Amino acid sequence: MYWADKLADEVIRRKPDKEEYVCAAGISPSGSVHIGNFRDIATSYFVYRALLKKGKKARLVFSWDEFDRLRKVPKNVSDHLGNNSFEQYIGYPYVDIPDPFGKDESYAAHFEKEFMESVKRFGIEMDYRYQAKEYRSGRYAEHVIFALKNRKKIFDILDKHRTQDATEEERENYYPVSIFCPHCHKDSTKIVSLSDDCTKAHYTCECGHEGDFDFTKDFNCKLQWKVDWPMRWMVEGVDFEPGGKDHASKNGSYDTAKDISREVFGYEPPLFQGYEFIGIKGNVNVGKMSGSSGLNMTPDFLLKLYPPELILWLYAKTEPLKAFDFCLSDEILRQYFEFGKMLTSYMNGTADENTKRVMENSLIEGRKFVPVPMSQLVDLGSVVDFNPEMMEKLFEKIGTPYKIEDFKELFERAKFWLRTCSPESEYVILEKRNWPYWRTMNDKERECVRLLKEYIEKGGYTLDSLQSELYAIPKQVFPDIAEDKNALKAVQSKFFKDVYNLTLARDKGPRLYLYLYAVEPSRYLKLLDFSLPEAEDPDAKEEVKEEVREEKSAPVEDKYVPEAAPFKEIIEIGDFDKCDIRVCKVLSAKPMRKTNKLMKITLHDGAGERVIVSSIADQYEPEQLVGKKIVVLVNLKPHKFGNEYSNGMLLASGNTDGTCRILFAADDAEIGSLVH
């Protein structure tokens, strides 16, 4: 049975005669709400839908805990403001803090609005509760007074779930409510006396202010979290509420809250479901997701990578206590494939019952979703400059006639993923012949390219016949190895690599037969034609002219030049020849944890990937390096830094002021080329 249906059945079993069931979720708007928090909503939403499917009346209630206080300023807020001015609001309730971005009426409103606009795109409708409004309206006044009257009972329950023993003095001076000071606006107050009927209190504040508080008239106060939670269960009549697995631990928040709910408020606590946290895979340094730290991945960002249906699908198919990842790496293509496969089985009626339930919770009413292969959009999108009209023609040409309206949204996501998360995966057809690569090829390899060019020029081929020809050409040129499967496979692989390099300047690319068939031959045939000598090629001549221009000396600036460090001893040419210095492309870069200067850099050195570690984290940001070409000593003996081995060393200038400047290679420098 589908997991949400099991939970719905348990909710009904507990209260079989209830007229309307309530599923709840809630988040504190401490900052941008991250995708991990969304599991709170998704879990409750799926149980709510399961109740409706079973013919029950149900409501989905969502609480904004905007009456909680600010504990620390999120990084994105401090970065935006550029100063520490927001520190003054620590201790304020979120609802009383101004919007740091100057768009909305409060700090809370800004982050609430940001999240709710994203949630709308999932087709999820919720009954929102704003807890500052609820408290300040006096709705909870009688419950606050009731909690004060039962404060010692509450204390004993809290004490039961603590690991440390409490004193009688602590019990006597315990009050389950915080008063917000009217002078400093913070909850840094302390109740020093309480009337016998628990309606009035005298308090002092750390700011020096003191005063009297009437709980029947003054509502600027809030119950402590583990008391507030069960109180709201009772008020809203909550039957189901999920929470992070930390709340579900023994003697955790839920254990404490359910005892207070039963023993103090006389309400049977709702069914609770803990859930595992969400991970992020890919070249983005997110850290532990937290709204208050500003290190998060918001639904809005993920919606640029995933359609809402696929996000819902990931939550729907994964049981709450199982983890899963959102992928910024190429694993995202696997997720798209699996979703498309499951959707297709659902649409053609071959899906099993569990799959049906997953897809019912994933699809959004009023939206049409066509499972266009994301891998094709990624592979072929860049070679058509992400032009939807051209992509539509390609689909028609290869026998999958998707229309623009079927893939337009996905096309934008493919482009965003490539350029934001995987720029090294983008394929761009060259404008000029790749003479440097052609010079590395032998005569038989060149013959393979010539035969391919002639075959495509003749035309009249189909997708299948082109695929067959690509494998047949090496057999024709290398007849001696045609029966040696391993040798033939190696030659075929080299042929494919040659074509990719001559047209894309890459060792790999989209499936070759698909790429050559889909793209208009006029865009790449010239790149396979080396019939003219290099000296007569206008493009090659232009490259030579450019090299000459670059060789011209730059004018010497008439300014102070600091004294250079002493020169090292003279070496022989043989000593220098031992150094293997190459042009490498930076694929990814990120600072190493628990270090101030070390940065882990993943490179492509022309033969494959390698990792180097360099002490430049205090000099460069990762985004200044990714996609750039740098000069690296690649045959340096590996050296271990922490848990990472550095396989080489980048070249940089060391300035007299202690800074350094990396030696970047020209954009048109070949990856893996030797530096002499």
Briefly, what CATH class of the domain at 3-139 and 226-280? Alpha Beta
Helix content: 25-40%
**Mean residue pLDDT:** 89
Q: How many helices?
A: 25
- The end-to-end span amounts to 67 Å
Global morphology: globular
Features:
single chain; 676 residues; alpha+beta; Rossmann fold; Arc Repressor Mutant, subunit A; 5-stranded antiparallel sheet; 3-stranded parallel sheet; 25 helices; 15% strand
Question: Can you describe this structure in just a few lines?
Answer:
By secondary structure, the chain is an alpha+beta fold. It contains 25 helices and 21 strands.
What does this structure look like?
- The chain is of the alpha+beta class.
- Among the domains are: 3-139 and 226-280, 3-Layer(aba) Sandwich (Rossmann fold), CATH 3.40.50; 372-423; 435-459 and 470-535, Arc Repressor Mutant, subunit A; 573-662, OB fold (Dihydrolipoamide Acetyltransferase, E2P) (Beta Barrel).
- It is built from 25 helices and 21 strands.
- Strand 20 and strand 21 (660-662) form a beta hairpin.
- Helix 9 (225-236) crosses helix 11 (253-263) and helix 17 crosses helix 18 (404-420).
- The longest helix has 20 residues, at 485-504.
- The relative contact order is 0.07.
- Residues 284-295 and 546-562 have low confidence and may be disordered.
Structural topology:
Blueprint lengths: L2 H12 L5 E8 L10 H16 L3 E8 L10 H7 L25 H14 L6 E4 H6 L4 H9 L1 H10 L7 H5 L4 E3 L9 E6 L5 E6 L4 E5 L6 E3 L1 H12 L3 E5 H4 L4 H11 L7 E5 L3 E3 L17 H4 L5 H10 L7 E3 L3 H17 L5 H10 L11 H8 L6 H10 L6 H17 L14 H4 L4 H16 L4 H15 L7 H20 L7 H7 L19 H14 L21 H5 L3 E11 L6 E7 L4 E7 L13 E5 L5 E3 L2 E3 L2 E2 L1 E3 L5 E3 L14
Parallel strand pairs: 1-2, 2-3, 9-10, 11-12
Antiparallel strand pairs: 4-8, 5-6, 6-7, 13-14, 13-16, 14-15, 16-19, 17-18, 20-21
Helix pairs in contact: 1-2, 7-11, 9-11, 13-15, 16-18, 17-18, 20-21, 21-22, 21-23
